[in-house]
Amino acid sequence: MAVVNVPANTGVHLNAGQVPGLMYVYCVGPAMATFGISIVNPPPPYVWHQLAAGHMLTFQVDGFDCWVENNGPSTIQLLYNTTFEGKEVREVEGATPFYLGRR
Questions:
Q1: Is residue 78 within 8 Å of 35, Cβ to Cβ?
Q2: What is the pLDDT of residues 30-74, one digit of tens each?
Q3: Which residue, 17, 18, 40, 86, has most beta carbons within 10 Å?
Q4: Phi, psi (degrees; rounded to nearest 5) at 89
């Protein structure tokens, strides 16, 4: 799973294909965060959300371009699965190959 930290008063653009399905936005805290998100169409406009510390929202990105702007005051994290298609197991971060019948 990819984790992107987005500190207060910063933003990030995720290119098309980078988030193949769902993306989760988590508020690290200690306070609430206000962030804007735009999927497919470049911002503006953003759809704005407020997220309490320790809470998460889910967005359906489906491989489209995505922009996130964090107005803070807390850091948010973007969490999403990366595309593994066509990669060897050893190329996938956090994956370990094993062989059936052998230990």
A1: no
A2: 999 999 999 998 887 899 999 999 999 999 999 999 999 999 999
A3: 18
A4: -55, -40
